[in-house]
Amino acid sequence: MKKVFVLVVLFVLPVVAYLFFASGVNNFGKLPTLTKEIRNVSKLDAQVSFKNKITILGFLGNNLDNKKGAAFNLNQKIYKRFFAFKDFQFVMVVPKGMEEEVEVLKKELSALSTISKWHFVFAEIEDVQSQFNSLKTNLELDKNYATPYVFIVDKDLNLRGRTDDKDEGTKYGFNANSVADLNNKMEDDVKIILAEYRMALKKNAAVRN
Question: How far is the C-alpha of 192 from the C-alpha of 101, rounded, in Å?
């Protein structure tokens, strides 16, 4: 019996584990595309672009005091875990006139971590709305041109999310006011899209070799 047990541990369990994780890769290897080719933020600021970046996009509005909690949640739960990835960035679209308030927020965030991959883009109200509308979601900006939701944009300017979320059905964005949403859903989805691109890079490298 001991020999049988040892054989099971050494040979059978690794095979079962491999099949389990291989199944996971097949089922969850890609994050669904919800909207193709959204407006590139470079149209608002030539120094910032979605192209060839994995972007967390947010809209902070013109009342930053109401959005500081969300910004800190994002910084602690998402940014600090993934900012080391080369092509990862945060882009926050803010109405013009909020430059001083953003500087205060950046100073507060920088006390918690490096913020080199936080980018703040200032735009006219009409352009803030147009940028948001290009996402084509079921969400809306509030009266301050803000939303608690943030969005995952891939390197080809596509909005990524979930088509079969158990709570929302189609899930376009993640509520930065909710630590549970960030921990239980957004973190997983960011991992998936980063893994997707890592796998693509490995395949391309293998083809070249």
Answer: 34
The H or E element that residue 67 is part of is none
pLDDT single digits (tens) 137-168: 999 999 999 999 999 999 999 999 999 999 99
Percent of the chain with pLDDT over 70: 81
- The Cα 99–Cα 154 span in angstroms is 27
Six token digits for residue 38: 């959204």
Q: Which fold has domain 31-208?
A: Glutaredoxin (3.40.30)
Answer whether 35's CB lies under 8 Å from 171's CB. no
- CB contact at 8 A, 74 and 187: no
pLDDT digits (tens, 9 = 90+) for 30-78: 899 999 999 999 999 999 999 999 999 999 999 999 999 999 999 999 9
Residue ranges per domain, the chain?
A: 1-30, 31-208
What mean pLDDT is predicted for residues 89-117? 96
DSSP 127: H
Let me know: does 89 contact 56? Beta carbons within 8 Å: yes
Q: Distance of CA 201 to CAs 43, 82, 190, 195, Å? A: 28, 18, 17, 10
> Residue 118: is its pLDDT beyond 90?
yes
Q: Two tokens at 135?
A: 């996402």
